[in-house]
Amino acid sequence: MTRPKDEQQFSPRPRAPKGYRPANLGPAHIEHVLSITMTLAAEVVALREKLDSVIRLNTEKPSFTAADVEAYEASPAAAAERAAWRQAYLSRLLRILYEEIPEENAPIRDQYSAFVEEIAN
Amino acid sequence: MQHLNLHPMLARQDSEEKSRHAFLIDFKNMLSGEFSEGARKVYERRVEPAFKKTHKRSPENRHEVARAMREDPYYQMWSAMGRVQQEIYVDSTAACVERQLPGLVEKYRDYAAAPKYGTLRLDPDLEIPRYVEAVDIHCVPGGYFVELGPDDVYAGARYDIGSFIFGRGQRGPLNDSRGLTGVNFLQDHFPDFAPAKILDLGCASGMNTLPYVDHYPDAEVHAIDVSAPCLRYAHARAEALGRAVHFSQQNAERTDFPDESFDLIVSHILFHESSRRAIHNYLAECYRLLKPGGITLHLDVPRRLTCKTPYEQFMADWDTFNNNEPFWGTFLFDMDMLRPATDAGFPAESVVETLAKTPTGKSSYWAYYAIKPGAQ
Known about the structure:
The structure holds two protein chains of two kinds.
Chain A: H1 28-60, H2 66-71, H3 76-93, H4 95-99, H5 112-120
Chain B: H1 15-32, H2 34-55, H3 62-69, H4 73-98, H5 101-113, E1 119-121, H6 130-133, H7 154-166, H8 177-189, E2 197-201, H9 210-215, E3 220-225, H10 228-240, E4 246-249, E5 262-268, H11 276-289, E6 290-300, H12 303-306, H13 310-316, H14 318-322, H15 328-334, H16 338-344, E7 352-357, E8 364-371
Parallel strand pairs in B: 1-4, 2-3, 2-5, 3-4, 5-6
Antiparallel strand pairs in B: 6-8, 7-8
């Protein structure tokens, strides 16, 4: 929608190119995308823990080298913090799965309209 | 989580692999923990009620549960996640071994050139049974048999480090919880049993063979498998750990050992990777190879005895359809396990199917044993 000139000097830029947008992916590709996503998720952990090593090394030994980062062994306390971070990360990453677990006695899908009627009255 | 024993043959994880693997273990724990519990709630609160509405009864077996659950979006996502977790962990452990492979092969050659404890006998003409080769078990590309070069140990090395991640660090520093469970079980049930010759069937990388060497120090221990790369690795690993084992490449259905060669024949998680006919043949071969009074003990996953309801059996059967474990469901729930032993000649009263506690006491393995008649 083009806004009136007195409100804004420029029209918003177009967001879609004219032409045909192909649909390349089919249902099977959802699994592929999931695989790519979770592989990426594991890389985020590897990067995050490497950064954690760098931050901790910087405190312990300010003149650390790349080899120090590679060889860094987290102390039991640091390892516990990393484990807790991974748990919280997984909970955020996989949050959508919780939404599919029905509450006890929740209405099943095909009864939802009747359920809305019931609570509306 | 326990830490790995960093023996000389074990592939080393770099810092990023350690992080990735820790994440993949946490991911699997979540899938088998709270999200598996989620699947149970989905079944009880959504799937089973809908099934009952249609059929006026509950599902009667795992196949009926499967038909209903596989239509459920939560289950579909959970199952897809499980498959993806397996694929990513396999790929990461495979890459870890591949980049160290030249050095591991060199170490194998050094141990094999001058073994101090045991021996290795390979048979390049051995026919690999179709039931372990037709699909790559547990979605490991190349399975147990791929050979990436001369004297290859890749498959065996990946299985060792992979077993630790797959077992979520719960199998002990040497991945030997099955073997330890076996020796503990024998100690509890047959405290005076002192086998002079022991055979381990389907030993793979030899992780579960070594506890028998430790527990029966006077025994001569043999171990067989059909995979050459696993046996090369197993031989070098046992040498590196200073344990005497005589490895040979043989099919457990029919070996070249003489009749009445062994006092004890064991296997660990072999049955669920085997066809029905192979399991019958294993028992027949055990009978032939055992001395009178000898014992054969086979350990495997416990679900055959612990999963009782149609829903539990359906969930336990996940690997059959999603993880390249074609005989999982057949072995777990459909086989009569008395027949293979009695057909082989073991008296029915000597055949026992029970549960054996793991060393930590936190879980159990399926334990199945039979005794050949006659005096020890």
